């Protein structure tokens, strides 16, 4: 199961087998991994002790649970002081570890991988010697099975050759990385079968089941149901990513008609209808609010590009509402500055990024914002300037339990989800102690 490329997550990695001295504290109290000159490709020449926040992970075939620990790795040259004070021209690079949970689990010949992330934090993986999972870890980082006792370094990870499989998914999720699950094995088949478009839910569900014929509901109906759901989601994401990336590459500049055509392809209907791709709003009053926004915008000069009559289920005074694409809009219109929570979008062309940021911030509200780009660094730089509670790149309204769901300005106070949100569900207890009477 392919989940992406390693270069998205790590700047460089080093691997070695654990020596007896490193593994057995009865033989050495150094609490150190010996390094080699090649590690300088990742960490550079240490001028002093360099401390890195590190997530330690221990992996074994015998237990699917990952043992993790937050600790510190310190990169330094043990001979630096001798060179400076005595002129002894020797170098001896080491990494001191403060791990008290994971490191003691290591045994001689275990595999050790240290990977550096772009935020200057490290991941240290110890995998049991001769285990399948150790081989998977080595494959994941592009190392061979025959490791020198010293570090072998992969300072530049080749994203075209090393795909993330299940082991990497477990590793990345343990350090808080939300991994997109994809399966491109059936992509070409889906593109041919569905003619490069999204099929109906019923058709796609039936297709997804055919791709895992070994799953039999008679053997385990609950397990089969969950397997079908997971496979359908994986395949849909693979197809969705391909089609959206293709559309983003083509761009919508001068092609608003293409976006309008995409919107007209939605099927407004009941939520229990498998052919529905756009369901009703939560209540009639919510739909009426959006209808009022649209009506006001039209009075102010906006142009409606969708005829509601093209959607048979559209009915004023009901929660069933046709989608709408508005052009010739500006920020004097409520639909461009207020939250709609409905199937309406106003398309407004801007001259540059600066104008776009100014307009995005021109609102009393700020729950979420999204930018679609193939340049992640540029997207993050823009996100830093946008006044919003949650910022997305290449997606929108995706809840991650590890991330705070919050807003700014008049959107509201506080947050849900993440450790910040869940802290509201705990009962604190304070101790104020005066030691002398």
Mean pLDDT: 80
Q: Span between N and C termini?
A: 66 Å
Main β-sheet description: 8 strands, mixed
Number of helices: 13
Give the helix level as a range of percent: 25-40%
Q: What class do helices, strands and sheet pairing give?
A: alpha+beta
**CATH fold-level topology of the largest domain:** At1g16640 B3 domain
Low-confidence stretches: 1-5, 152-165
Elements, N to C (H/E):
EHEHEEHEEEHEHHHHHHEEEHEEHEEEEH
Describe what you observe in this structure.
It contains 13 helices and 17 strands. The chain is α+β, with helices and mostly antiparallel strands and 437 residues long. The protein has three domains: 6-171, Beta Barrel (At1g16640 B3 domain), CATH 2.40.330; 184-250; 277-421, Aldehyde Dehydrogenase, Chain A, domain 2 (3-Layer(aba) Sandwich). A hairpin with a 2-residue loop joins strand 3 and strand 4. Helix 7 (201-210) packs across helix 8 (221-250).
Features of this protein?
single chain; At1g16640 B3 domain; 3 domains; 8-stranded mixed sheet; 3-stranded mixed sheet; 29% helix; disordered N terminus
How would you summarize what this structure contains?
By secondary structure, the chain is an alpha+beta fold.
């Amino acid at each position: 199961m392919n989940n992406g490329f390693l270069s998205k997550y790590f700047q460089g990695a080093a691997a070695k087998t654990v020596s007896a001295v490193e593994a057995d504290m009865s033989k050495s109290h150094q609490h150190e991994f010996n390094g080699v000159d090649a590690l300088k490709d990742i960490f550079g020449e240490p001028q002093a002790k360099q401390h890195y926040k590190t997530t330690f992970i221990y992996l074994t075939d015998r237990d699917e649970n990952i043992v993790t620990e937050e600790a510190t790795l310190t990169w330094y040259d043990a001979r630096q002081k001798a060179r400076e004070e005595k002129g002894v021209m020797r170098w001896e690079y080491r990494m001191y570890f403060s791990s008290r949970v994971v490191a003691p689990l290591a045994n001689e010949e275990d595999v050790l991988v240290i990977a550096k992330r772009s935020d200057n934090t490290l991941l240290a993986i110890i995998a049991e010697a001769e285990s399948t999972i150790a081989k998977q870890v080595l494959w994941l980082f592009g190392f061979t099975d025959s490791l020198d006792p010293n570090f072998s370094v992969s300072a530049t990870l080749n994203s075209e050759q090393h795909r993330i499989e299940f082991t990497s998914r477990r590793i990345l999720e343990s350090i808080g990385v939300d991994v997109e699950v994809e399966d491109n094995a059936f992509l070409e088949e889906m593109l041919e079968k569905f003619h490069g478009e999204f099929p109906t839910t019923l058709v796609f569900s039936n297709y997804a089941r055919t791709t895992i014929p070994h799953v039999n509901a008679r053997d385990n109906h609950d397990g089969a149901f969950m397997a079908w759901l997971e496979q359908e989601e994986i395949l849909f994401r693979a197809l969705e990513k391909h089609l959206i990336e293709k559309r983003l590459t083509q761009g919508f500049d001068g092609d608003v008609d293409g976006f309008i055509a995409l919107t007209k392809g939605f099927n407004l209907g009941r939520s229990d209808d498998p052919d529905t791709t756009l369901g009703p709003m939560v209540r009639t009053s919510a739909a009426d609010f959006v209808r009022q926004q649209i009506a006001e915008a039209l009075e102010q000069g906006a142009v409606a590009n969708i005829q509601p009559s093209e959607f048979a289920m559209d009915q004023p005074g009901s929660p069933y509402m046709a989608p709408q694409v508005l052009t010739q809009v500006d920020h004097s219109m409520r639909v461009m500055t207020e939250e709609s929570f409905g199937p309406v979008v106003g398309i407004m062309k801007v001259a540059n990024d600066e104008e776009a940021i100014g307009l995005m911030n021109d609102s009393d509200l700020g729950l979420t914002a999204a930018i679609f780009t193939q340049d992640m660094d540029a997207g993050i730089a823009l996100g830093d300037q946008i006044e919003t509670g949650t910022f997305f790149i290449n997606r929108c309204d995706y809840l991650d339990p590890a991330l705070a769901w919050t807003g700014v300005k008049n959107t509201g106070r506080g947050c849900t989800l993440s450790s910040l949100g869940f802290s509201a569900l705990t009962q604190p207890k304070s101790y104020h102690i005066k030691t002398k009477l």
